[in-house]
Design a protein that fits this description.
Layout: E1 13-14, H1 15-24, H2 29-34, H3 36-53, E2 58-59, E3 65-67, H4 69-83, H5 86-101, E4 122-132, E5 141-146, E6 154-163, E7 171-173, E8 176-181, E9 189-199, H6 213-218, E10 223-224, E11 227-228, H7 231-241, H8 247-261, E12 263-264, H9 279-284, E13 286-287, H10 289-302, E14 307-314, E15 321-330, E16 334-338, H11 342-345, E17 365-370, E18 387-393, E19 399-405, E20 411-424
Parallel strand pairs: 12-13
Antiparallel strand pairs: 1-3, 2-3, 4-9, 4-20, 5-8, 6-9, 7-8, 10-11, 14-15, 14-17, 15-16, 18-19, 19-20
C-alpha cells in the first residue's frame, strides 16, 4: 500500500534505535524524561500499526524488528495524511511547532505561529563534537566540522577548535574547522568546536548589500551540485509563476507547490540521477530540506531570480538540528529567506496560519554554509552511496545526529551538539 519502498538490504536498523529517533521527534524533553517508557510504548504501537499499513520490516530470529529509517519516517507522515493515524499530528507536527515556540517564552497561542520579528538579538554558546569512524577515512585525509559563518544576522563570533584523538593542529577556515591526517588513524577521530556568537532573528533589508554582477551570475548558475535547471524545471517554474504580480508572489507559489503537491521526509539519495537530481523528488512525491531548498533555488533561477542555499543548525536548546534553507534576492527586500520546513509545520499546508512562517523571516540560526561560495564537506571521508540520518537526545540534554551507513547500520560520523541560549544583547 505504501507509495514508496527503498531496498530490502537497507532494512537493518533495529527497532530500538528507530524508537529513539521517533521519540526525539515526538516529545519535548520534559515529556521524554517524565515518562520515557510511555513514550517508547506509543512509538512501538505506532510502528505495529504502520506495519499493518504496509511498512516494510525484517525480523531477526530473536523477534527483533529492523527497518530502513527513511521508510519508517515517511510511513509516519503518510499514515497520518492518508489514514488519520494520530502519531503524525499529535506528536510530530505538535513537537515541531513547540520547537519554534521555544524561543518565545511560552507567549501566545501554541497552535498559532509566533512573530519572528519580536525576537531580540541574543547570545548563544554552542558546543559541537564530531566523531569520525576511521573505517570511512582516506589517507591522507582532511576531516571537517561546521562552524558559524559571519552572515547578516550572525555577529561577534568567537570560535575554538580542538582535535581530541589524532595528532595535528586543527585550523579554522570560513564555515569550518579542519584537521589534516597524515597517517591512517587507528581509532576514532574527534573534533570539538566551541562557539559563541550573537544571533538575530533575520536580516532586515538595511543589513545586506546587493550582489555584484559576478555574484548575480553565480546565483543564477543553472548547474550547481543538486541544482540542475533542466527543461522540466524551467517548464514547471513558468507554469507555477505565470500571472504572478510580483517576484515575491512567484516565490510563494513555488513554496505552495511543495506544500500542496509533495510531502516532506528523508530521501534516499542513492536513487538520485546526477544529471537531473530534482526530477525524482517531484515524481516520487517527497523531499527533504536539502532537496527542498535546492528545488526552490532552481525554480527561482529558472525565472531569472538570483537564489542560493544555506545550511547550518537550528539552535533550539532542547533539540538542535542540522538543516538547509534557501534565500532569493528581491530588489525591494534584499535576501529573503525561504524554509521548506513549513511543509511539516503546516501539516502539509492544511493549517493555513503556518503556511507562511519562515517565508521572508527566520528565527535564530547558526549558518555554516552559503552555497556555492562557502561549504564545509570533508574531502577525506568516504560517504557511502546509501546513508541515513538518525537523531536522539543524549547526556546532559545534547542532541546526537548520526550519519549512518544504510548498508551496514554503522555510523560514518556522529555529531553531538549542545546549545545554550544566553542573554539578550542590545
Amino acid at each position: 500500500m505504501l507509495p514508496f519502498a527503498t531496498d530490502a538490504r537497507l532494512r537493518n536498523v533495529p527497532e530500538a534505535r528507530i524508537v529513539e529517533h521517533l521519540v526525539f521527534h515526538g516529545w519535548r524533553r520534559a515529556q521524554r524524561r517524565a515518562d520515557p517508557d510511555g513514550a517508547r510504548r506509543v512509538v512501538i504501537e505506532a510502528l505495529a500499526r504502520w506495519r499493518g499499513l504496509g511498512l516494510p520490516a525484517a525480523r531477526d530470529g530473536d523477534g527483533t524488528w529492523r527497518y530502513d529509517p527513511a521508510e519508517a519516517f515517511l510511513c509516519m507522515r503518510w499514515a497520518g495524511r492518508q489514514f488519520n493515524d494520530p502519531f503524525w499530528r499529535e506528536h510530530h507536527v505538535a513537537i515541531e511547532r513547540a520547537r519554534v515556540h521555544s524561543f518565545h517564552a511560552g507567549e501566545g497561542d501554541p497552535e498559532a505561529p509566533p512573530v519572528m520579528a519580536a525576537l531580540p538579538p541574543r547570545r548563544f554558546t554552542v558546543t559541537l563534537r564530531r566523531c569520525f569512524d576511521p573505517a570511512y577515512l582516506a589517507t591522507p585525509a582532511r576531516v571537517r566540522l561546521p562552524l558559524p559563518y559571519r552572515v547578516a544576522g550572525l555577529r561577534d563570533v568567537e570560535v575554538t577548535v580542538e582535535a581530541l584523538d589524532a595528532a595535528g593542529q586543527a585550523r579554522i577556515a570560513p564555515g569550518y574547522g579542519e584537521l589534516r591526517l597524515v597517517a591512517a588513524p587507528t581509532g576514532p577521530v574527534t573534533l570539538v568546536a566551541r562557539s559563541s556568537f550573537v544571533a538575530s532573528a533575520y536580516a532586515r533589508p538595511g543589513d545586506v548589500v546587493a550582489p555584484s554582477a559576478g555574484e548575480r551570475a553565480l546565483y543564477l548558475n543553472p548547474s550547481e551540485e543538486l541544482i540542475r535547471v533542466t527543461p522540466a524545471v524551467r517548464t514547471l517554474a513558468a507554469g507555477l509563476g505565470g500571472g504572478a504580480t510580483s517576484p515575491r508572489e512567484r516565490v510563494a507559489r513555488f513554496v505552495d507547490y511543495l506544500m500542496d503537491g509533495l510531502a516532506a521526509g528523508p530521501f534516499p539519495y542513492e536513487w538520485l540521477d546526477a544529471k537531473a537530481p530534482l526530477d525524482l523528488p517531484r515524481e516520487g512525491g517527497w523531499f527533504d530540506c536539502r532537496l527542498g531548498s535546492a528545488l526552490v533555488t532552481a525554480l527561482c533561477r529558472a525565472c531569472g531570480m538570483p537564489a542560493r542555499r544555506m545550511s547550518g543548525y537550528l539552535l533550539y536548546p532542547e533539540s538542535a538540528g542540522y538543516h538547509w534553507w534557501a534565500e532569493v534576492w528581491l530588489d525591494d527586500a534584499g535576501w529573503m529567506p525561504i524554509d521548506t520546513w513549513v511543509t511539516d509545520l503546516s501539516a502539509n499546508g492544511a493549517d493555513v496560519a503556518w503556511r507562511r512562517v519562515f517565508f521572508g523571516e527566520l528565527d535564530y540560526r547558526l549558518t555554516s554554509e552559503v552555497m556555492p561560495q562557502v561549504f564545509n564537506r570533508s574531502p577525506g571521508v568516504r560517504v557511502p552511496p546509501a546513508w541515513r540520518i538518525l537523531e536522539r537526545e543524549v547526556e546532559d540534554g545534547a542532541t546526537e545526529i548520526a550519519l549512518v551507513d544504510a548498508a551496514t547500520g554503522r555510523n560514518v560520523w556522529v555529531d553531538t551538539i549542545r546549545t545554550e541560549m544566553g542573554a539578550v544583547v542590545g
